[in-house]
Automatic annotation (TrEMBL):
This is allantoinase. InterPro entries: Allantoinase (IPR017593), Amidohydro-rel (IPR006680), DHOase/Allantoinase_Hydrolase (IPR050138), Dihydroorotase_CS (IPR002195), Metal-dep_hydrolase_composite (IPR011059), Metal_Hydrolase (IPR032466). Its EC number is 3.5.2.5. The lineage of its organism: Eukaryota, Fungi, Fungi incertae sedis, Zoopagomycota, Kickxellomycotina. It is an enzyme of class 3 (hydrolase). The keyword Metal-binding applies. Residues 91-464 form the Amidohydrolase-related domain.
Length: 507
């Protein structure tokens, strides 16, 4: 066989529709005991074949018939097949961040899709799921969802899916939204912080659960209840005391009782912070309550004792709690009580973080971190003695894919699945600096932190969304190329290969 390959240092902007990628340290899924040499072929955005072994451009040829079986013959004879040897870099499924506030349209001064999705790509995320609030209008009706689709246009650097919103009086909008394609619904059991997304009370949730029982959707509930009066506002403890763990426990208790009355609906607790709720969760799961739990990178990586006075970049709701709490969350994650980890990327304009006064009670409660989840979690896992990033796959890839009902396409590397991949070096460290941050405002508690796990390349459905090989500080647009399958026109398209009635946005 005469073969003409195009060796690639990285897939170039004019990317081939088919390429072969080979590496020494590949993690296909979490069942695999550790990194193994594998070679994968990718065709039109999907993983085509996977074979064991790491090959160079000199040694790959005998294996090409297996890797390209059933593909057009011209691919390997006309130089259309790219070959990419990543050597000792690690290859694993792309991260799915199931909780991101993008804020477009309406509050793009806080964050927009371009910057949020570029940051996601730079951090090894291949899919983000946008929360229904903080954008204006919120995603509480099909019209509002359509407004978002039109506003976002072609600015998605990674795959983007949507959550719908559950607010008082929109129970009639839930099924149409589900049919439109939202991955589930989020309601707040506390003031959301923005007036256009009012909190729901027990009767609203019960009404919604009755509607949702006819289909499989998710009541994605923000589990905190009422606030207590303020104390000295520059001290982090003042804010922490205003949001005691009992508030989360009470809210989760209520959620569990609603779910027990509506077993066809899966309930998902967003951003669990209080370890005090874990026994309740454990008992509910043991009883078979249809419940999943997420926590956030910051609750696992940071603790209240180390937050300086006035450092409002650490403020989020619910709050970062103490060191013992953090250890308990880790134990719950390891035990599987907590299912997945998300960023809850929730930026605002810098002034809303009250940097002048350092007032924790007045500052916007949200942490910007969509770019750093993989590295933050790996850095902390490493500190806790983990030697192989395999531990991250269920938390960041597999269970998030199940959570958003895209596990038939995403979350694992196997033939037929989307070629969503992150190529990174878990041993390489870097310092978080403003110039390296791609989200809109460079306000984050991780600024100045040294993190392990540098992302080298991110591929979304076989297309490069981020590549350090192209990086120059003066041309940030060149860092990240649009995630556009070849041959598509300029209009935003629905990702039609998802289950009937569900979409994710694609640019
Ligand atoms: Zn959130």
């Amino acid at each position: 066989m005469s073969v003409s390959l195009s060796p690639l240092d990285y897939p170039l902007p004019a990317q081939p529709t088919a390429f072969v990628i080979s590496g020494n340290r590949v993690l296909l899924n979490s069942e695999q005991p550790g990194p193994r040499p594998y070679t994968l072929s990718v065709y039109q955005g999907l993983i085509h074949r996977i074979i064991p072994g790491h090959f160079s451009v000199q040694t790959i040829e005998p294996h090409l018939p297996r890797l390209t079986a059933e593909l057009p013959a011209g691919l390997i004879h006309d130089g259309q097949l790219g070959f990419w040897d990543i050597g000792d870099l690690w290859l694993m499924p792309g991260v799915i961040d199931a909780h991101v506030h993008v804020n477009q349209p309406g509050r793009t001064l806080w964050e927009g899709m371009t910057t949020a999705s570029q940051a996601a790509a730079a951090g090894g995320c291949t899919t983000i799921v946008d929360m229904p609030l903080n954008a204006i209008p919120p995603t509480t009706t099909v019209d509002h969802a359509q407004t978002k689709v039109e506003s976002v246009g072609d600015s998605c650097w990674v795959d983007v899916a949507l959550w719908g919103g559950m607010v008082p009086g929109n129970d009639g909008d839930l099924l149409p939204l589900r049919d439109f394609g939202v991955r589930g619904f989020k309601g707040f059991l506390i003031d959301s912080g923005v007036p256009e997304f009012p909190m729901v009370e027990s009767r609203d949730v019960l009404k919604a659960l009755q509607v949702l029982e006819v289909g499989i959707s998710i009541a994605n509930l923000h589990a905190t209840t009422l606030e207590k009066p303020p104390a000295d506002p520059r001290q982090y403890t003042a804010f922490l005391e205003s949001r005691p763990a009992a508030m989360e426990v009470d809210a989760i208790h209520a959620v569990i009782s609603w779910l027990e009355a509506h077993p066809a609906v899966r309930g998902h607790i967003v951003h669990l912070s209080a370890a005090e709720a874990l026994p309740l969760i454990k008992a509910a799961k043991a009883r078979g309550v249809n419940l999943t739990i997420e926590t956030c990178f910051h609750y696992l990586a940071l603790s209240a004792q180390t937050i300086p006075a006035g450092a409002t970049q650490y403020k989020c709701c619910p709050p970062i709690r103490d060191e013992l709490n953090r250890d308990a969350l880790w134990a719950a994650l390891e035990e599987g009580l907590i299912d997945l980890v998300v960023s809850d990327h929730s930026p605002s304009t810098p002034d809303l973080k009250c940097p002048e006064t350092g007032d924790f009670l007045a500052a916007w409660g949200g942490i910007a971190s969509v770019q750093f989840g993989l590295s933050v979690l790996w850095t902390e896992a490493k500190r806790r003695g983990y030697e192989c990033p395999r531990i991250l796959l269920p938390w960041l890839c597999e269970r998030p894919a199940q959570h958003i009902q895209l596990d038939q396409r995403k979350g694992r590397l196997q033939p037929g699945m989307d070629a969503d991949m992150v190529i990174w070096d878990p041993e390489e460290s870097f310092v978080v600096t403003p110039v390296g941050i791609h989200f809109r405002h460079k306000v984050t508690p991780y600024l100045g932190h040294t993190l392990y796990g540098r992302v080298h390349h991110t591929l979304v459905r076989g297309r490069v969304a981020f590549s350090t090989g192209l990086a120059t500080e003066s041309e940030p647009r060149l860092l990240i190329m649009r995630n556009r399958p070849s041959g598509t026109d300029d209009t935003p398209a629905y990702f039609s290969a998802t289950p009937p009635g569900r979409i994710i946005l694609e640019a």
